[in-house]
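User: Here's a protein and a ligand (manganese (II) ion). What would the complex look like?
Assistant: Let me lay out the input and then the predicted complex.
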Amino acid sequence: MKYTPIKNELYITNRKNFVKHLKPKSVAVFNSNDQMPTNADGTMPFRQNNDLLYLSGIDQEESILVIFPDAINPKHREILFVKETSDLIAIWEGAKLTKEQATQQSGIETVYWTSQFEQIFHGLTTEAEHIYLNQNEHLRASSPVETRDDRFRKSCQAKYPLHEYERLAPIMRKLRPIKSSLEIDMIQQACNITEKGFRRLLKFVKPGVMEYEIEAELAHEFLMNRSRGFAYEPIIASGFNACVLHYVENNKECKAGDVILLDVGAEYGNYASDLTRCVPVSGKFTPRQKEVYNAVLRVMRAATSMLVPGTLHDEYHTKVGEVMEAELIGLGLLDKNEVAKQDPKNPLYKKYFMHGTSHHLGLDVHDVEERNRPFEAGMVLTVEPGIYIREENLGIRLENDVLITNNGPIDLMKNIPIEADEIEALMA
Ligand code: GLY
Ligand code: MN
Ligand code: MN
C-alpha cells in the first residue's frame, strides 16, 4: 500500500448509514476480490472489492466483512475476517494485517481469521432470517470471471436454501454516489497527482515522441506521488487515433501538426481521477484545431454549470446535446436545415459526439449510480464532451471532475491548464 490510509471514521459512518437499509434480522456478507492469476505462478496486482473497501477500508485479499445489526452477541454485529498472519507467514509472504491493525483500519472490534468464517457464519445463520449477498450489478459490467462473491452466493444458497435472500447492490448504489469530505479529499488528491503528470508532459511533448513515451512520463510522475498508477487504461491518441474512442495501444509516433488526445487519470488510495486534455504535437494549434477545441471547451463549461442538485442525468445530457448541436453548426459540420428536420430520437450531433457527457466518479472510474436519481450535493461527476472529425484526423475531448454542491459546482480540476493559449504557453 503506497497511500496514507483514510481515517476509520469514514468506514464507521459508512456502516452506520448502511445498516439503515437492512430489514430486521439480516446478515450481510461482503467478500474481497480474488488475487487474479496471470500465467505460471504470476499474479496481477491486487485490487480490492470497492463495496468491502467502502465499508471497512481493508485493502487486503481473502478478507470478509459480515454485518449483522440484530446479532444476539453484540460482538457479532460487525465482524471482519482477515487472512491469518504469524511471524512465520510474515517471513515467507510478507506482512499481512494483524487483528489489531485490521481493527485500527476499519473501526471493527471483532476480527477473526478467514479460516474461521464457515464455523462462525453457521452460528449467525441460525439467528438470521435474511441473508444479503453481493453481486456486480453495474449497468456496463460484462464479466465472465467468477468472483469470490459469486462463488460464495452459490455455496451459501446451497447450504442455506430456506433463508430469504436479498441484494446488496441496490443499497451500495444508493450510498456510494454521495461522497463524504474524506472521500472528496482522496479524489482531489488523485486529481492533484494527475495535474503534476499533465504539467510534466507539456514540457516533454514534441514532434517524434512516441505515445508510450508520454505514458511513461505520466506513470513516473504518478508513482513518485504515492499513486499506484493509472486509474484506468490510459488513452494517448495522436492524430486520427483520437477518433477511436477506446484506443489504448499508445504505440504510434506523434507527428508535427497533429493533436494528441490524452485521457489519463491517476488513482490515489483506490480513488480515481479522470482527465482528458488535447495538446498540439508542435506546441501550437492550427486555427481550425483551435476553433474545434474552443467549441468543446464552451460545451464543457455550459455542461458544468448544469451540474446542480435536482437535475436528472438524462435531461442534462439532452440539454448538453443541444449546446453541442449549435457548436457543430457553427463549425460547419452540421447543416441548420438538416438539424431542423432531424429525428429527435436520433439527433445528428451523434455523428460527431457519440458518447455520454458525464459519469459518476469515485472508487470506480465509472462509479455506481442510480440513473433516475436527480443530482445531489456530494456527487462527483466527470464532464467530458468531445468532437471527433474522422475526415480531419482530429478528435478533441476535454474532461474534468466536478463536485456538485448546494452552492454550485466545484471543479476539482480547476488548476489543470485547459485554455488553448495557456497550453501553448506552457509547451513553448
Ligand atoms: N477514462 C474513461 C472515461 O473517460 O470514461
Ligand atoms: Mn470519464
Ligand atoms: Mn476519461
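Summary: The first strand starts at residue 26 and ends at 31.
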